[in-house]
Each structure stands twice: as C-alpha cells, then as structure tokens.
Design the sequence.
C-alpha cells in the first residue's frame, strides 16, 4: 500500500486482515452470548416472518434483506436451530463483520503515528470495543429488530474500500475498489437507504484525492452498469408480490416489466422526468414509502432544538446505559458520556494525523450519521422527552435510537482510536522498552460500555414477545377474527403463525392497515374457503372443533372497498348486527377504517368469532364495548341482550375494578393451564420502556380476574394467587424486578 505523506517511512501499513477477522469473531461471540432466543417486539417478528416465507415487509420492502435472510436461514438449517435464532444470528454476524472493517479503519489511522506495528494492531482491537458495545449497536446486534445491521456492514465495508482506493489510487487497477463501492451502495439501497449515507463523505474523499482519473468513459460506463445491476434487486418486489405471499405489505404488483423498471430506476432521475414515466405506481409508492406520508424537512415535526435534544439523549445512552435506569440525560451517565465525546474528538484528531483526505471522509461521514440525519429524519418530540407536551400524537411512538446505530458504531471506533492516540502519547513520556505497558491501564476505559451496558443490551433469555403472541392467539376460538392495534400486538402473531405454524386459522386484522387500498382486498382473498387455513389444536380439548368457514370474511368487492372513505353522519345511524345494534349520533365521524371494520364484522359474525386485542382501540371506537367479554387477554364481541340471563361460566367483576365481564371458567383455564408467562412475570429489566404496556396488560388482567373470581365465589386461594402474580406483573411494568419497580 502506498503511504500517506504523513506516514513515517518505516511504518508497516499493510492491512492486518487476520487480526481484523479475529476481532470480528470475538465481537460475534459476545453477540451470540447475549443473543435473543426467539422473536422480540416491534419489527423483529415481521422481518423474521418475511425472511422465512419470502414475504414483503412494510415499505420500502427491503428485498435484499428478505432474500439474504432466507438464504442465511437455509444455510443454517442443518444445525437444527430455530428460525428466529438463525435470523438473529444474521444480525449478530453482519454487525460483527462491520466491526471487523472498523478494525481495519482504526488500524489505518493508528499506524500513521504508532511506529511499531504490533502496538497499532493491539490499539485497533481496543478501538473497536466501544463501538461494538455501544448500547444501541449491541442491542440491535443480538436480535434482528431492523434491517440496519446489514446496512451498517455495507457502510463499514464501503468506508474501508474507499480508504483502500485512496491509498492505492496511483496503482494500476485501483479503480476496482471504487467500482465495488458503487455497486455496494446501489445494492445496499435495496436493503435500506441508510446504506447510502457514506455518499457525501465519498464525494469529498474523491475530490480531495483527484477526481480526474475517474472521469474516463470506461469507469463511468462500468459504474452506471453496476448501479443499474444493484438497483435491479428491487425487481424482486413485484415478482414476489405477484405470487400473493401471506405477508404482502403494499402489494407492489406490476402489470408490465416496463412499468416496474420505470419505478425501480425513477429514483435516480429528476422528479420532472420520473413523474412522466409510465411507472408501476404500487411499486413506486412502496419504494418511496408513500404510505407513511412523511412531510418535507422544511415542515418540522418538532423544533430543531428538541430534535437535537433527542439525539443527545440517545448518545448519552451509548456508553453507560445500565448505570441509571432513567431515560433522560443529565444523570450518573454524564461523566461517561463526556468522556467518550472527548475521546471521539481525539479520534478525529488521529484521523487528521493520518491525512487530510481520511480525516475529511470520516468527519463528513460522522456529520452525516449524526447532525445531518437529525435534520433529515425530522422526528416529533422524543418518546420520553418533553413531558409538558401532553398530546401523544406530538411524540414519537417509541424511542428512535436505532436510526443512529451506524453513527454510534463510527463514533465508538473514533473514541477507541482517540484512546489509542492518548496511549501512544503517554507512552512517549515513559522510558524503556516497556513504555507502552507502563501506561496500558488507561486502555481499560474502553471496557466501560461492555460492563455498564451488559444488563440493558443483552437479550439472552428474553421470550416476552413470543409469550405474548402465544397467549393472545390461544385466547381466541377456532377461525376467529382478531382485530389488533399496532406493531406489538400484530407482528408477534405473524411470527407465531408463519414461522412456528401456531394458530394459522386466526385472521389477524391490523386496524391501521384498513386505511390502505391493498390490505382489505388481501384479507378477503386470504379468507376464501380455498385459502382459509385449517384449525390445528395446540392444546387438546381447549376448543371444540369447528367447521371450516364457508365464505370469506366479507362479501365486498374490490371496487366497493375502494369506494369507502371518511364520512360525517348528518343524522343518527343505527347499525344492526345479528344479536345487537349500535347507534352512532349525528355528527359522528366514521373513517374508512371504522366503516370497513364494521362491514367485516357484519359479514363474519355469523360463522367466525370476533375478538379484539384490547378493550380500548377499535372495540371502543366502534362503540361495541358493552358487548365485549374478556377471554383471557382478548376481548370477544358476544351478541346478546345486555339485560338477559348470564351464560354459565361467566362472571362480572366489581365496580372498583371496572365491572369487567369475563368468560370466567375459560379465562381461568387459560391463565392456569395454557399461558406462557416467560420473561413477562419474571423479567429483571424491561429495557424498552415504550412496550411496558405489555406487562401492564397482564397486570390488569390478573387483577381484574382476581376480583371477578372473588366476586363470583371462586376459592380464596385462586384470587390470592392471581393478586400475587399481579404484583409481579406490576413490578415488571414499572421497569423490571431487578430495579425494584
């Protein structure tokens, strides 16, 4: 490798690929030790399920991840590992590989001022540790919650290839490194647009390194061909969508190859050109994430100061998350936060010592992954910040630290490199052949994140999402229609149905998806008699066998579904169902989701039991809660006279506990014989505070069930046991047993 002008002439700068591989393997071992044994909340279940069945997750569809995930899972299948573990290992492996490339980058910087190669190699190992054990990096690397670890690997690989090109740019054939960069960026965009974030830094690096050599027609032609090849992976979406997989979000089916091609390559063209092309609109909408209706960055969702405050909060978590359970900054974590902020600045100084081009690339990359990303993402107020703003819709629905995962990896590497520079500088004041050893205790600082993040970053033994999904699905009768409210009461159910094959007979309906044009049509098609999946009793004798439904969940045609919009009632409207009727007063607004839900219930209630995942949400919004009866975690819609006789086995709780109706015998059996409470009743730390509503629902169920049991003559020990469990659920819902609530 040619040396930068700042390199001493005797420095060995050949890339240490062997030590980099060893470093990646050690990081991988850490992630495996703390690996999740099954699925988790948020998007984890969706991505595991879509990788398993080669489905289409939410926009932009992530075709690269889905196919890499499926291929990876098939390769690991002979090991007998559960599918969820295989996909989680993909996250661990891609993230660990990214750390391997960061080792090479750190070594490149450290070698510019450390004369002895062995010390540079050792310092590079220590430089990797803070980034690999930063809270968000670690937490995203032991479960496949997102597709970002694959993008993180692409960013790290692209960065190393770019630096390799810079160092060898005067050698024949060096342009191949940049061609690989171009291809990986284009291919990475079909995983997630996070993959292309090195672009600004690459432009600066090329400009500083001499762009004229890249303006040759041969290079430009090859680069254009590689971009087209990389982007072509998006053709997977319409091809797979045409086969109607069970999970087919956005349904990006195209009628022609030309329309698909126009949609795939339109993003590389100016808007005035792309909008004139006869492109496949469903595919274009999926790729552009039109479903989420993101406002332009000029229309801020929160004051820019609040958005940077959110970033500072997440940066504050990275280096000592476990030292204080409080989410907000300014706690006992602050000294560690300032320490790693300063070490990262020293790392940039080390990059400057390595050469202007290298420093410029890393500085721009860091700025892109932090400051620029804050501006571009345009978040609302932080989930746990700005408590004075009481309106929930003005806050993010969860913490968003994972969007900055690549930035935390890079900053951690810079901090470790800065510590290496400090180690080298202090060794310069020492004397003798063991001068580095004399000051080596300062390297222990890189272990702070490893030690202080372990309990919060580890996912080992976490079965909560799988337990929740199992308990909810087992709460409903064969061929039930189950209305859910969001990611966490939907995606884990998909995982259990599509990956583990449990209760595939249940039709899960995501209330928010009813607003789309494609989802109601998919529900109708998936529940036709020829497509309806049969009931398979998981617990023998829990439910009686039921005949396969003779019709779909609705008789509506696609055209009728498309015609449904929002409506404000000019006068009172009574909607009759078999066995009940609900009246909506004048001026009531029934949106598209409400109207379609009412029609689905009306068309299905004759032969399919109707359930809701919560007493609030859709059940309450539709005014159907008076007919709701608790069946374990779910609420069943039971048509009946509210003043009529009470069915055998039912019981109602007392007024102080909400006077909730229970199918008491059935719920007690579910609770005592069927439910799986792993990681919900006995969780030491519940790391994600935005999902605390899960143990909270168990707490409410156990407490209300205890009250109903006591109010309806059940043995005292039943109520006592339920109240003891409720106390445990409450502690978990307050943060975890280890935190004392």
Sequence:
């Amino acid at each position: 490798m040619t040396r930068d002008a700042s390199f001493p002439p005797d420095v060995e700068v050949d890339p240490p690929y062997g030590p980099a591989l060893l470093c990646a393997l050690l990081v991988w071992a850490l992630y495996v030790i703390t690996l999740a044994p099954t699925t988790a909340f948020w998007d984890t279940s969706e991505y595991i399920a879509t990788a398993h069945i080669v489905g289409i997750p939410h926009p932009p569809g992530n075709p690269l991840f889905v196919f890499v995930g499926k291929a990876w899972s098939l390769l690991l299948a002979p090991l007998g590992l559960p599918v969820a573990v295989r996909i989680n290992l993909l996250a661990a492996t891609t993230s660990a590989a990214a750390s391997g490339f960061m080792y090479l980058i750190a070594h490149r910087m450290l070698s510019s001022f450390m004369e002895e190669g062995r010390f540079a190699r050792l310092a590079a190992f220590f430089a990797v540790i803070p980034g690999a054990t930063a809270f968000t990096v670690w937490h995203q690397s032991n479960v496949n919650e997102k597709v970002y670890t694959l993008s993180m690997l692409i960013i790290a690989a692209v960065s190393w290839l770019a630096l390799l090109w810079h160092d060898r740019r005067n050698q024949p054939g060096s342009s191949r490194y940049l061609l690989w960069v171009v291809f990986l960026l284009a291919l990475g965009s079909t995983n997630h647009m996070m993959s292309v974030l090195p672009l600004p830094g690459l432009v600066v690096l090329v400009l500083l390194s001499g762009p004229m050599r890249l303006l040759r027609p041969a290079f430009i032609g090859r680069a254009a061909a590689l971009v087209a090849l990389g982007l072509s992976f998006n053709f997977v979406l319409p091809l797979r969508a045409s086969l109607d997989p069970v999970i087919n979000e956005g349904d990006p089916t195209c009628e022609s190859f030309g329309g698909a091609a126009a949609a795939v390559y339109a993003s590389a063209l100016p808007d005035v050109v792309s909008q004139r092309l006869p492109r496949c609109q469903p595919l274009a909408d999926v790729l552009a994430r039109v479903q989420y209706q993101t406002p332009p960055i000029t229309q801020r969702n929160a004051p820019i100061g609040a958005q940077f405050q959110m970033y500072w909060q997440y940066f504050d978590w990275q280096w000592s998350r476990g030292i204080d359970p409080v989410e907000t900054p300014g706690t006992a974590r602050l000294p560690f936060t300032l320490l790693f902020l300063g070490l990262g600045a020293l790392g940039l100084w080390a990059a400057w010592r390595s050469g202007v081009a290298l420093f410029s690339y890393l500085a721009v990359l860091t700025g892109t992954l932090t400051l620029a990303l804050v501006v571009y993402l345009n978040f609302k107020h932080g989930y746990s910040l700005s408590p004075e703003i009481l309106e929930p819709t003005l806050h993010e629905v969860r913490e968003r630290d994972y969007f900055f995962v690549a930035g935390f990896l890079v900053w951690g590497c810079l901090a470790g490199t800065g510590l290496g520079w400090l180690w080298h500088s202090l060794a310069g004041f020492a004397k003798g052949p063991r001068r580095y050893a004399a000051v080596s205790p300062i390297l222990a600082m890189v272990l702070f994140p490893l030690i202080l993040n372990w309990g919060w970053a580890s996912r080992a033994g976490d079965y909560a999402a799988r337990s929740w999904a199992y308990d909810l699905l087992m709460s409903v009768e064969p061929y039930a229609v189950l209305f859910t409210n969001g990611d966490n009461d939907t995606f884990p159910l998909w995982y259990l149905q599509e990956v583990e094959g449990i209760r595939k007979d249940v039709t899960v309906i995501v209330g928010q998806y009813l607003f789309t044009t494609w989802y109601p049509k998919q529900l109708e098609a998936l529940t036709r008699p020829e497509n309806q999946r049969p009931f398979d009793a998981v617990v023998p004798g829990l439910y009686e066998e039921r005949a396969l439904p003779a019709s779909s969940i609705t008789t509506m045609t696609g055209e009728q579904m498309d015609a449904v919009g929002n409506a404000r009632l000019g006068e009172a409207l009574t909607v009759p169902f078999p066995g009940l009727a609900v009246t909506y007063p004048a001026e009531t607004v029934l949106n598209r989701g409400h109207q379609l839900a009412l029609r689905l219930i009306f068309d299905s209630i004759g032969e399919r039991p109707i359930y809701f995942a919560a007493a609030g949400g859709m059940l309450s919004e539709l005014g159907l809660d008076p007919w709701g009866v608790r069946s374990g975690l779910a609420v069943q819609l039971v048509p009946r006279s509210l003043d009529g006789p009470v069915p055998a086995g039912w019981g109602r709780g007392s007024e102080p506990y909400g006077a909730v109706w229970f199918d008491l015998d059935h719920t007690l059996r579910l609770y005592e014989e069927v439910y799986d409470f792993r990681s919900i009743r006995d969780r030491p730390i519940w790391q994600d505070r935005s999902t605390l509503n899960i143990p909270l629902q168990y707490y409410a169920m156990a407490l209300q069930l205890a009250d109903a049991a006591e109010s309806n003559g059940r043995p005292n020990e039943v109520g006592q046991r339920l109240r003891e469990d409720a106390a445990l659920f409450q502690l978990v819902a307050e943060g975890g047993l280890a935190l004392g609530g």
